# Entry
Amino acid sequence: MAGKKQFDVDTALDAAMVQFWRAGYADTSLDDLSRATGLNRSSIYSSLGDKDSLYLRCLDRYAARYGGRYDQALSGASEDPVRAVREFFEVTLNRIADPEVPDGCLVAQTAMAIPVLSPDIAARAVEALGVQQARLRTALKAAGVVDADGLAVHFAAVNQSLAVMSRAGVGREQLRAVVEVSVGALSRAVSGV
# Structure
C-alpha cells in the first residue's frame, strides 16, 4: 500500500538508540543508522527526523526506559532510604551487566560530549541529569534524610561515574564496591553516626 510505513517505529528507534549508545553521536553516521535500523536515508529522514532530532528522540526514550526503573527503585525511600538507594544503584549495575545493551550510559556519554553537541542536545543531557538528581532529592527528602540535596547530587554523580567506569572496563566487583561506599555513607547519615 502506497505511503504506508513498512517498519515498526519503536524497533527502529531502539536500534538507533543502541547505535548512538555504542558509538556516540559524533561517531555515528547516517550509514551506521541505516545499517542499524534497516532503513534507507530517506526513510530515516521522513520517519525519524534528521540526526539531531533522532538523537533527541533516542535520548528521551533512554531516559524514559531507565527513569521508570529508577523511580520504582526509589518508591520505598520513605520507609527505608538505604534499601531504596541500594536498589537505585542496582538498576545501573543490572543495566551495565546486561549483554543486550552497550556498556555505559547514553546520558553520561552525551554529557561528556556536550562541547561538540548542538545546544538542543546539550540542554537535553543537562535536563536528564537534573531529573536524576531531582528524583533522588525527592526520595531522600521524603525519608527525612539530612542533607538530601547534597546526597542527591553525590548519588547522581556516583551513578554516572559507574557508567563511565564500566565503559572503561572496570569490573562489576569494583563497581559494587563504589556503590557500597555510597550506601554506607547514607546508612551512617540516616543512623546519625
About this structure: DSSP finds nine helices and no strands in the chain. The chain has a mean pLDDT of 94.
